[in-house]
Structure formats: C-alpha cells, structure tokens
Amino acid sequence: MGIIKRMRKIILFKIVFFIAGFSCLFSLQDTDGSGFADSDVTLDFRSLQQGDIVRVSVEGKGIIRKAEVLFLGETYIMGRGEESGHWLAFLGLDLGIKSGTYTIEVSLLFNDGHHRNIRREILVKNREFTTKKLWVEQDYVTPPQDALDRIQWESELLGQIYDIFTLQWYGEGPFIIPSDGEPNDNFGERRIFNNEPRSPHSGVDISSPHGTPVKASNSGRVVLAKNLYFAGNTIILDHGLGVFTSYLHISNILVERGEMVRKGDIIGEVGATGRVTGPHLHWGVKVSGSRIDPYSLLSLN
Ligand SMILES: [Zn+2]
C-alpha cells in the first residue's frame, strides 16, 4: 500500500467541532474500492436525529459533469457551491423520520465519461420532544365553516411552493438568526391547543417585541409574502437546492413575492398575526419537504 493511500485511510474519519454545534466531516466509503483519486465527498451535520439537516459536498478533482444524491428513494441533483469545483446537496431528516439506518448514495459523472458511486450508511437516532399546552382563540383550534376553503387552498399553495426545486445555490456563507430576542429551543414540541392535540411545532419561536426587525437568514428569492389563516403574515425565502426558510406572525411585510434578498436584509417586523399567544417570530426551515430544526441549519458553517 502506497504512503498516500495509507494517509487517506488515516484521515478517513475526521471530527471537527464548530462553535454553533458539532459537525462531522468524513470521506464516504467508495463502493468500487478504488480510492478517492478524483473526488472527495463530505457529510456535514450537527447530529443525526429527527429535524437535522445534512449537507453533502463534493470536491471534484477531476471535472464533474453531473452529480446526484440518492436518499430515501428520491434523487437530488447537486448544484454548484460557492467555490469553484464544489458541488452541494442538502438532505432533511424530517421531524417524523423513524430512527434507524439509512443509505446516502452519491453518483458522479465525470467529463471523460466515467462514473463513480459512493455510498454511506447513517444511523438516525430518536430525539426527545416535550409537550406543551397553549390557549388561543377557539377559531384557531376549530376554524369556522367559512374559513375551511381558505385553509385548504393555503395548504395546497404551501405544498406547491415547497415543491419548487431551484438548481442554483443562492446562499452566501452561513445562515444567521433572523431576529434579536429570546430564542426558544421548542422545535418538535408536541402541542395541545385548548385541550386538543395539534401538529408538532415545526420551527423555533424567538420572543421579540412587536416591531423588531426580521432579517433574511441568508440570500434567496421571496416565494411567498402573504397573510395566511394560521401563520398570519408570512414570508418564505427559497435559498436554492430545496432549502427554504419561513418567517411567521409578522406585523409588517417589507418585501414582495419574486424579489431577491441578501442575507441580513430587513424583510419584515415581528408581530402577533395568526394563531399566537403573543408577539414573537416563528422561524421555520424546510429542506425538500422535510421539517428541519433551524438551529441545525445554523450549525452548518
Ligand atoms: Zn412557532
């Protein structure tokens, strides 16, 4: 075994601690066993639990023509990252994913026509979630008959928006917290409204006074800027490659659908619209349809 091959084996497993959390960087098992001569694949994540995001990056030493990731029966086309020769995909471990072993397969097609498939198994662990009782206006628990069509239409609209897959990465560096205030680590909380169980909490709430600026967590396109029945005034940004952030219960929306925003731009103001118990920003993240803990996104550097 040559010294370079031996060195590669030694660096196969590297653990790097970041300030915001803990991410793992390691090369994947090459299914044809011929080493990593023309590509290195890296997985980056905070932990492997319900609600975590996994970033798959490929550093192409040869020239890659096409890169794809196969995960949970879906194919994700990789896009070009912020640095040249860098390819990216984001995978979501949904809030409801079952614990167990899952396979991530990266498929690369090089300019000279040869293929390489790289496979890795990940072990997803259970996360504990707390239960909370909340009291809101009864119309937000059992909506009146005349609101049902609107709720149904809005749910279909959100489905269409989260189906968008933009094959371009708009993000610029790490994501940022969108508002000053007291962050609550309440992603996935089981919720009981006026004594009736409802869907688990699919974001985090940042307690801030009415009128506090809401910033774009990263650069992207505004794909929704609209009042919704439960979410109140809502903004959704598409950052590309299946990654969306949402900002709910806003008092004042300062952007329009279709507009491009830069990371840190003020897009709205904190409010108390929709189903709330007081002013706060509900910040949500979706990755190709999966409900993701925003703090897991923040831990990607
Ligand atoms: Zn919330």
Q: Which helices and strands appear, and what pairs or packs with what?
A:
Elements: H1 3-10, E1 13-17, E2 22-26, E3 29-30, E4 39-44, E5 53-60, E6 64-71, E7 74-77, E8 79-80, E9 86-92, E10 100-110, E11 115-124, E12 131-134, H2 148-162, E13 182-183, E14 190-193, E15 196-198, E16 203-207, E17 213-215, E18 220-228, E19 232-240, E20 243-250, E21 252-253, E22 260-261, E23 266-269, E24 281-287, E25 290-292, H3 294-298
Parallel strand pairs: 12-14
Antiparallel strand pairs: 1-2, 3-11, 4-5, 5-9, 6-7, 6-10, 8-9, 10-11, 13-16, 14-15, 16-24, 17-23, 18-19, 18-22, 19-20, 20-24, 21-23, 24-25
The structure holds zinc ion.
Zinc ion (ZN) is lined by residues 201, 203, 205, 282.
- What oligomeric state do these chains adopt? single chain
Instruction: Examine the coordinates and then state which fold CATH places here, giving the name of the CATH topology of the largest domain.
Output: Glucose Permease (Domain IIA)
Helix content: under 10%
The CATH architecture category of the largest domain equals: Distorted Sandwich
Distance linking N and C termini? 35 Å
The proportion of strand residues reads: 35-45%
**CATH class term of the largest domain:** Mainly Beta
Q: What small-molecule ligands were found?
A: zinc ion
